[in-house]
Amino acid sequence: MNSALLHNGQIITAAEYNPDKNGQRIRCIDKSCHTDLIFVPGTDSSVPYFKTTGKNDHSKHNEKCGFYRILTFEESIKKVEEYQSDLMEKGIKETLIRLNLKKLDPDYVARTVEKEESEKKKGERSK
Fold first, then answer.
1. Rounded-to-5 percentages of helix, strand, coil across the chain
2. How far apart are CA 108 and CA 19, in angstroms?
3. pTM tops 0.85
4. Secondary structure (3-state) at 35
């Protein structure tokens, strides 16, 4: 997990998290879960992240949590919408992500671009 909920209700990312400054009590951001998390610091080959220990019921995501299992595309969209509305109420600014889903459309025909002509023109310009 990249984000977690601090004891004061603020959201923090793993890259920003400092245990000495932010405290040790961190929880899952899913409002149906709020399970205890631990911080795993980054190394040379990995980035920092949050995770559950899974050792008891207080450290496992529940079945309604978006982090409990791999979600379908539709479930992912619903969870993102849920998280976004919850986070907007906490003062997090909105981030817009554009997805190009044209290639999923069976009727979509990609434009063909003749690259040979454009390469010849570039070659002529550089001479």
1. 30, 15, 55
2. 50
3. no
4. coil
